[in-house]
Structure formats: C-alpha cells, structure tokens
Amino acid sequence: THTGTPQGGLCAAAHNPPNEQRWVMRSVWRLLLVGVVGAAGRCA
C-alpha cells in the first residue's frame, strides 16, 4: 500500500474532495483580501 509513503500523501492531497478544495480557496482569498485591505488602510 502507499499509505505510509510521501508519494501516497501527495496523491491524497492532489485528490482532495471538491468541498475541501473550495474551503482552501476561500481561506486563500480571505488572506489575500485581508492583506490588500491592510495595505490600503496603511496607505490611507
């Protein structure tokens, strides 16, 4: 089995359920928005 190998972990990460990928993308967008708003707030 590939459960204990790093490649198996990479394969599992590459085949995440769609809802998990959506959650990851939401968190990434939230971090980007917070960074942009924070930078704009410092400039203003």
Characterization of this structure:
The chain is mainly α and 44 residues long. The mean pLDDT is 74. It is 80% helix and 0% strand. It has a domain at 17-44. The longest helix is centred in the C-terminal third of the chain and has 26 residues, at 18-43.
Key features of this structure:
rod-shaped; mainly alpha; 44 residues; 0% strand
Concise synopsis of the structure shown:
The chain is mainly alpha-helical and 44 residues long. It has helices at 6-14, 18-43. The model has no long low-confidence stretch (mean pLDDT 74).
Query: How many E strands?
Result: 0
Structural class: mainly alpha
Biggest pleated sheet:
none
How big a fraction of the residues is strand? Answer: under 5%
Q: Helical percent range? A: over 70%
- Average pLDDT taken over every residue: 74
The arrangement of helices and strands along the chain is: HH
